[in-house]
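Example 3.2
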Amino acid sequence: MYLKKALWSEGLSASAAAKKQQTGTSSSPQELETETATATAVGELVNSLSKQRVYREITLGLRAGLCDARAEFSFLRVRGLRSLLKILRSVAQSDSTIHLFSHSQSQPDLQVVPVLFQHSFKEESMEDKVTSLDHIFSVDPMKITSPSTDAEIALALRVLEGCCLLHCESTILAHQYKAIQVLMNILSTRGELEQGACLDALVSIMLDSSSNQMEFEACNGIEEVAELIKDKQVDENLRLKCGEFLLLLIGHVNGRERAPMATIHEDVRRLLGEKSASLIWAASQFGSTLDPAERLTALHIQARRVLESLDLY
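Structure, written as tokens:
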């Protein structure tokens, strides 16, 4: 879904401006005041209609994507997740559309996060497994739900990340579904594709969420990340992602007064050593005045330095 400006709104605005130019030089003060009020009313009407149209497009896109994301088969859920991810990318382009998306998440039937945990992140149970063919000869059909594929898990993590970044209350919903425990399980059992997306999602759900941060500490999440970054057999890109995660965790997620994870610096020092811990702490203070592109480049460079400091020992 790509949100575009309505053509009729430009036409109304242009006609109102042209009319104002034609009558502006020969009109009396009272006529000018009336025309100004009319133009203002037209502008407000155009803005209101445009806002309603965009909100309608967002809700329609969400309903279509969520319908597929609730499907029993993984390929349909993947299609729905791709649609939801496209919606989030379109919404992120302006503050007004972000506000409309946040408003849509107040409606239970349009909430994205619960659907992710109820379907894509749901672990396969014994009821979902086909253990015999007896149901073929029975009267009642058997409901079969295909397990989540690697691609589905990775897409669901990206959708979760986007929802939490655009709508802060989505982190509360994620906490209700024990998101940290679910994501830590993905980080320890899934492949590199899901692990990289999982690290990004962890940052987003812990940002400005003390409950998720405390849950991460209770799950010994920092130890899991430390094991990945120290393992030289792990793919280098994933190790770099772990370095970026630690930098963001210490410098931006936990870098506030009375941070919930009070022992994180001691944990990093214990797990990675004094030199690497000091480098991570110093590097995590990078780029607060840089633009987003330069900040991202600085993050990559600092993560590389953290990795090099670990490889020296």
